[in-house]
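Continuing the series of single-chain predictions for the mutant panel. This is the parent chain; the variants come on the following pages.
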Amino acid sequence: MILLYFRLRKKNSIDVYEKSNIGGAWQMGEINRQKYTPHNNVIVAMNKQEEKYIYMINNELKNLGCTITKPSGEYKTGANYNHKNVYIHDLSGLYSRFKKSKCLIKKKINNIKAFSNKVFVNGIEYDQVYLPCCFDINKIVIDKTSVNIFSYKSISHHLTIVYKKTKLPNISYTENFDNVFDRAYFKENNKNIIFTGRVRRKYKKLQSNKLVDVSNLLKNTKDDILKLKLKKYNHYIIEENILSDLKSKIKKTNVNIIETRQFVNSYKLLNNVIK
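Parent structure:
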């Protein structure tokens, strides 16, 4: 959605609504004065046809201030496809540039009313409105008819650990770390090593210290830990049939839904909306 903003702003005046932290599941955090990603996401092609988009994504992100490096350690996803081009993407530069634009409205969208050639967001008129696939909006009205949009909340738990310089598994990214964490990575900087892992459902009720105690790969690293931080991410999901029904109802309006569920495929479809 931020890439869409940078493309649209070349010829348009734009407002961006976001009630929480910029970046969603891709947001950046800060711990011990160090930038880090509190959630576990990567940009990879899911089939041979998507591989060409990795270079396009990298070029666009670099032009917007992102840092892109090759992984130095083990890199494995749970996909059947063998990814040809794998990178580590630091999006902090993108967010810094976005925040300087001063287009952000820190409010929740409570209602959208769309007519044949007008769209109102929280009572404010816009020429065009773009929504991600995953959202939580109380009321959508299309030509005076209310559309029932049910979304359910999924909460993922991610544990970040700051280690002093020590010997740890050489893993840049994996989706099967150990018994406690599925997605996980280690990132090293000049001062420390940072681990972030997504907690498996079975262990979501445990506190930070206990997660380390029961982790097969981390339980012997406690002496090297400088700081622990558990982050919960609220994600609103709309079932595909409900989303398809909404898409059919907004076809003749100026409301658009942008695919946001898988980065490379979403990027490919974004090129169909605006170059």
